[in-house]
Amino acid sequence: MIRTPRPSHLAAAAVLLASVTACGGAPGAQDAGGGGGADDRIRLAMLQPPRSGLSPLSDDAFKLSRWSTAETLVTLDDEGGALPGLATSWEQADDLTWRFAVRDGVSFHDGTELTAEQAAASLTAAAEASPPPRILDGVTLTAEADGDTLVVTTGEPDPLVPQRLSSPQLAVLAASAYAPDGTVSPVGTGTGPYELTEVAGTAGATLERFEDYWGEPAQAAGLDVSYVPDGTARAAALRTGEADVVEAVPVGQLTQIDPALIHEVPMPRTNTLYLNTSEGPFADPAVRAAAREAIDRARLVADVYEGRADEAEGLLGPAIPWAADLRDDACAELLGERPEPAQVDGVEISLGTFTDRAELPEVAVLLEQELEAVGFEVEQDVREYQFIEADALDGAFDAFILSRATVLDSGDPVAYLYSDFACEGSFNIAQLCDEDVDAALEEAAALPVGPERQAATMAVEALVLGADAVVPLLHERVVQGESERVEDALRDPRERALVDASTSVG
Q: In this protein, which residues make up the domain named Solute-binding protein family (predicted)?
């Protein structure tokens, strides 16, 4: 169960939320809360509030990772290679079995000790969750302890097991995190340098330095987190010094901010127009082709992103350096076989997107203009993400604009492609179910990390593009704001890390 914030923190949160509403400032805790003075604390302005009560089995896990409160058995280097985390080493025992040595001397925030048994219990809870974490889409995984060793077994050979275990959705938490009803609370149950101590719903959260951390202790006394979906308010928080680290500063606000506070982070993130392939107008491939041909990517990059983005040639962008070189002649041939655009005079379509990423409503306006120019009649539906995600996944829209990270979970695009385009994918907004795509995904997933897997990945991309299930628009370069007083904030293309033990304020 999530603990109730102390009255002092609730009062502070109320005052700060009022300041956001009144003058565009970001929330930031006024009460230091026992870890040191307010000047020793880092104030974070986050893009989105939690979607699932900060459950680590949901996308909220990435907040826990960015706050350095929940940790995983494996971490990733810049190239997506596996590095030790709560596991110090591992080996593949056979095609289906991996053995991980669990780190000694690690304490959970509730005072209990990390063991191979508890690591197995955390993985088992994730594997048995419904729905399962995205990283386990299509994967059968079991975990058990063998003395001090964690044994992970998969139903099929899976060369990506270490990378999978780096997903924030597979963080290892204390036994006290897991309630009998299946809910999971990260409050006071992680292993990171910061302990999550208080949660104020969709307003914010408080973290304190964990003095018994197994690694180097945190430089800051704690973190004061505020959720600020409004991009103008986030920019104002940076400009006025009310926040130290600010996620996703809108491009349209940059002229009002000191350039020294702005840091551009190249992202493996693609803004994509998903088309509902199962029902409605876009069930017809020729109508999908008409939408594809209507889009002017250069205009979107210039007018909405002011040149701070790259036009998309496919789903995987320049942050994945090998992708462009592997779009070969076979891919071009497949794309050339797509149907000619249909005449769409008067065809009515619904177009959805969300407000949390400030540029997306502007993208929707331009896409509506371009689609209507070729004959579509467009009805827009724009909401906060937490209120629109379920409808998008249920296929309630004919078209949906999404900003999507393409290597978010494992450092490898296959997990994203499966989630978004497999028949059984958990994030299949396009409602695509294609035997050739599923077969290509299965082939790619079975290959070891390396050139063959990369080529197979691009074959999947070509099939998805050949079906016109999506229209890739552009690849983002997310802008992160950092105040003058913060040092060593993390600029992570994968959006897993924002602050760590070395981040400080002065």
A: 84-426
